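Worked example

This section walks through a single chain of length 327. The input is the sequence exactly as stored; nothing has been trimmed or padded.
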Amino acid sequence: MRLLALVLVVASSLPAQGTLQFTQAKEVDLGAPASCDYLTFDASSRHLLIAHGTKIDIVDVDKGEKVGSVDGLEGAHGAVFVPELKLGFATSGRKNTLVVFDPAWKVTKEIATGTGPDALLWVSTAKEVWTMNHRAGTVTCVDSASLEVKATIEVGGTLESAVEWPAKGLVFVNVEDKSLVAEIDISKHALVKKHELGSARSPTGLALDTKNGTLFCGCDEKLAVLDAANGKVLATPAIGKGCDAVAFDAEKGLVFASCADGTTTVIRDSEGYAVAGKIDTVPRGKTCTLDPKSHVLWIAARTMAKDGVRAVAFAPASAAKDADVKK
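Given that input, the structure is written out below as tokens.
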């Protein structure tokens, strides 16, 4: 781990709430160069799960160091740990499988999915794990008790990130090549609607404000903001190039769109979804996740140097009154 003192100022003055500032606080080197995809934050263990190459690396965010890995995957895309099950799950895109692993990070089972499983989602209301099969255009729904496939949902198109709206019994998933968001009824395992994104194209990253029922879709140089109840596009603020993930800080009302051009755009949901500024992160830093306790944003990035893949933390600076890091 390297501790860095560089303060990155988000270039936007917000008279009512001060100037947003973020400090590049921690950097964790993860090893040899490899493709880098989703990272997920597990609040119960305070671990990051970072998919890259043939494995899932686990980082303790408080220690700022790697503490384990799930090895032997081919085309790792994403992972999630479910504390109540004491099990973790990861997608292996080239093997077309959902990989199950235990708390010791050992693979215990592999379950066949559709072609090219990419993002995955723990669907809490159904007690199922869903894989978004990028190339097949389907969703594979796996029962967490039996670890068997319960249903396959036909959506169509190239599927990306997904979110659950538990109160409404719905899952939303981005369909990249069709520039829309698909709405799925959880209990029926059925496609309900498809919401067009207007001028926004190629959605990848996705986040949801469950309190206000608002979807945030990271698209090609735009963030599409939708009313989740009816699919109406509310705003399309500009973001960087190569967005692959979106995070939402519910307490602060901030949306983060991480992009491969080395920027993360910050948007306030309380100010008409206007751009509050940009954080200069790291080249190829296209995926992100948020620690909701500390409000720290983590970025995963692949470099061409020998250290290969790294996870970088950006903490709210003390100069921003509304974004103090809780020690």
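What to look for: The longest strand covers residues 18-31.
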